[in-house]
Design goal:
heterodimer, A: alpha+beta, Arc Repressor Mutant, subunit A, Glutaredoxin, 2 domains, four-stranded mixed beta sheet, about 45% helix, B: Alpha-Beta Plaits, Rossmann fold, 3 domains, five-stranded mixed beta sheet, four-stranded parallel beta sheet, binds iron/sulfur cluster, binds FE2/S2 (inorganic) cluster
Chain lengths: ~160, ~575
């Protein structure tokens, strides 16, 4: 089922045509936090466009995500400075540790992983940012510890 | 008409046409990749670039309208360098896989690379690797070989009105995929294979069942029989360098025997059987106030299309199985019984011009218990592959006749291969069923030809029957919309999924232009003209099958073996 919030979005665009596709997708994502499969299918029905077309358009833009965001969002900076300091390796390590790709959320719903162009703190490269907290000069071998500390925190909070 | 100058020669062009079509008509060879005749030009690949005097930069001729006095250079130095560079860039992100590729020796990209003289790897880049999607029983997608020309996307959307696939992602990670990158098997794909037919590379191909067939042929415990669809005998020739449209039925039958099939049956026989059932069903619906217009059910892509997009028309579909499935059912019942063979030991193969037939054969309704009507479906292309694999010399064979009890056919059954053929065959027999006499003129010209929509009115016993013949599902969708909106002058509608019918099916030889497809069609009508038995109800073998086994059309046995049901289908649309 489509969330009520997303249904409300569609109600706001009763006779919408193709050209309202992007605004509709933006509002649905605003409402749900992401674009669910169901939402993509329903938006397609609403606009009389195929799901493949909607999905195609949505994946063209970086702003859309297709996984329900996790409790904690990890942003990995892939800007030039971080790249030079080995951010590719950092990203790979996190992917392996969490068994997800960028843009996805872990099965337990705890972490989602995002790649960002440049966070603007090049002095700290390579840098990752977890729920607004920066981790500077990270090394691949530190990743597990960093993630574990968040896992602990969350289980204590629960 | 306006005049343009091409390489110093004066060429006539139609006002507002694209430059490429004027160039092609005048006989200039311009390489293209993303261009597809009849569909929206996208100008995506820029392979067709030419130089136009006064215009800065090169222009893509497929998407550039002509203007009076235009001066064009089609093979200037700049043009040649640009074309070659485009291919070199495409190859930079392409697996160097030709030796292992289904399209080796039959690939537009390969040919372009050769003709443009690409002989070294100029650009080395990161190659995108994608998983192969083999989830569908009909179509295999290998996006690593895709050059993003978009031809498949446009055919799926504009010709078939399905849109199961589209471009996803962006930049260097763009890939043609389904919604949510799921398998084609759960998408709205109707398995028509038209995307394969337009794909210039090996990125799309049929799901192959050659291995299963080869293994069965080697298995001494199996009785392996084969049937071939009406369109195959007029198309296979092209695979062996013989003129398009040549009917090589007898040679093909001989080749199938050489390959080791125990019996060679003709699907046109069961096309006649279909007509007996479907003709009777139409007459019954008309007489008893059944659901009209009745719509044909022999094209499995169309059936899936109705099930998922137009379920409110399911009751309009004839309940008849397709000829492939009808023959499969009587092979494993009547034939098995009369020859004392355990149906479980029969391995029943069909050779079809169609990829959707592979899907149809696997439908759970198409069999009884653990016994499926059909065990493996090969396309025309796969049969050619099998013949080459076994080194059968097509020139050294003497023609052979198909086997009884399913070898005889009328020419009406043979017409099933072309759009309009089922209609013509059905009307010939429905007329006989309703009046007891033969139609004075058996040719029904209005329903023949390559047009996507054909209509006619036929008078039978004072009753005017309205018929429509459509091929290509966007044409079918238009007609369904008209009926939803209240159109009610039609009694019977023939729908073929592929434009022009099975002769242009998704399993047919590659590189056939419209002329070749028309030649195949002519081949079928030539057969119809030249043989004496031209109506299904005079097929002696069919009549014998009713007498000895089935009873009568629409009878109890027929219902059990030859008819089926459809249901609304949930897919990602
Ligand atoms: S698609 Fe064409 S160029 Fe690519 S590997 Fe296959 S044959 Fe070679
Ligand atoms: S087989 Fe037909 S329906 Fe399926 S993707 Fe190809 S063109 Fe579309
Ligand atoms: S799959 Fe084939 S037809 Fe489709 S975009 Fe790729 S190369 Fe073109
Ligand atoms: S064929 Fe003209 S741009 Fe591709």
């Amino acid at each position: 089922m489509l969330s009520t919030k997303a249904q409300d979005v569609l109600k706001k665009f009763p006779d919408a045509k193709r050209d309202s596709l992007i605004p509709i997708l933006q509002e649905v994502q605003e409402a749900d936090g992401y674009l669910s499969k169901q939402a993509i299918i329903e938006v397609g029905r609403h606009l009389k466009l195929s799901a493949s077309k909607i999905y195609g358009v949505a994946t063209f833009y970086n702003q859309f995500r297709f996984y329900k965001p996790g409790k904690l969002t990890i942003q990995v900076c892939r800007g030039t400075a971080c790249h030079v300091k080995g951010s590719a390796k950092i990203l790979d390590t996190i992917k392996q540790e969490l068994s997800i790709d960028a843009g996805q959320t872990t099965k337990d719903g705890l972490f989602s992983l995002e790649v960002v162009a440049c966070i603007g703190v090049c002095g700290l490269a390579p840098v990752i940012c977890i729920e607004g907290e920066f981790h500077a000069n990270v090394l691949p071998e530190n990743i597990k510890n960093i993630l574990d500390s968040y896992r602990k925190k969350v289980s204590q909070d629960d | 008409m306006i005049s343009i100058d091409v390489n110093g020669k004066t060429v006539e062009a139609r006002k507002e046409e694209m430059l490429l079509s004027a160039l092609k008509r005048a006989g200039f060879e311009i390489p293209t990749l993303c261009y597809l005749e009849g569909l929206t030009p996208t100008g995506a690949c820029r392979m067709c670039v030419v130089e136009v005097e006064g215009v800065p930069g090169l222009v893509p001729s497929c998407a550039y309208p002509v203007f009076n006095g235009m001066k064009v250079q089609t093979h200037s130095k700049r043009v040649m360098v640009a074309r070659k560079t485009i291919v070199e860039l495409l190859l930079a992100d392409h697996p160097d896989d030709c030796l292992y590729c289904v399209r080796n020796n039959n690939c537009e990209l390969q040919t372009l690379a050769a003709t443009l003289g690409v002989r070294e790897k100029v650009y080395q880049g990161k190659k995108n690797k994608y998983k192969i999607d083999a989830s569908s029983p009909s179509i295999v997608r290998d996006p690593s070989k895709c050059i993003l020309c978009g031809r498949c996307v446009r055919v799926c959307e504009e010709v078939q009105n399905v849109s199961a696939i589209d471009f996803t992602g962006r930049g260097s990670s763009t890939v043609v995929s389904t919604a949510f990158d799921q398998g084609l098997n759960v998408s709205s794909c109707i398995n028509c294979g038209q995307c394969i037919m337009v794909c210039p590379t090996g990125a799309l191909r049929e799901q192959s069942y050659l291995k299963d067939v080869i293994n069965a042929l080697k298995d001494p415990n199996l009785h392996v029989v084969v049937q071939h669809a009406p369109a195959v005998s007029v198309s296979l020739a092209e695979e062996f360098g013989i003129k398009a449209g040549t009917d090589i039925d007898g040679i093909m039958t001989a080749a199938l025997r050489t390959l080791g099939f125990a019996k060679v049956f003709d699907t046109s026989f069961s096309a006649d059987l279909t007509i007996m059932e479907e003709g009777s069903e139409l007459v019954q619906r008309i007489k008893t106030g059944g659901k009209l217009p009745m719509m044909t059910s022999c094209s499995p892509g169309w059936i899936k299309y109705v099930e998922q997009f137009y379920p409110d028309f399911i009751d309009n579909l004839s309940t008849c199985k397709s000829p492939q499935q009808m023959l499969g059912a009587v092979i494993k019942s009547y034939y098995a019984q009369t020859n004392g063979i355990d149906p479980k030991k029969i391995f029943s193969v069909s050779v079809m011009p169609c990829t959707a037939k592979k899907f149809e054969a696997e439908r759970p309704e198409m069999g009884r218990g653990a016994v499926q009507d059909i065990d493996a479906v090969l396309t025309t292309r796969e049969l050619a592959e099998l013949i080459r694999l076994y080194g059968v010399d097509m020139n050294g064979l003497t023609t052979s006749l198909p086997d009884n009890p399913f070898g005889q056919r009328s020419t009406a059954g043979k017409l099933f291969g072309a759009s309009g053929g089922v209609m013509e065959a059905a009307l010939r027999s429905a007329y006989f069923l309703l009046t007891g006499t033969e139609m004075a003129e058996l040719d029904i010209k209005e329903v023949r030809g390559m047009k996507g929509v054909k209509e006619a009115k036929v008078k039978i016993n004072g009753l005017e029957i309205g018929v429509a013949v459509v091929s290509g599902l966007s044409n079918a969708a238009n007609l369904l919309e008209q009926i939803r909106a209240g159109r009610n002058d039609l009694h019977f509608i023939e729908v073929m999924t592929c434009p022009g019918g099975c002769i242009a099916g998704g399993g047919q030889p590659f590189n056939a232009n419209t002329d070749a497809v028309i030649a195949r069609m002519k081949g079928l009508y030539k057969i119809d003209k030249s043989e004496p038995i031209r109506v299904s109800h005079k097929n002696e073998s069919v009549l014998k099958l009713y007498k000895e086994f089935l009873g009568e059309p629409l009878g109890h046995k027929s219902h059990e073996l030859l008819h089926t049901k459809y249901a609304k289908r949930q897919v990602v649309q």
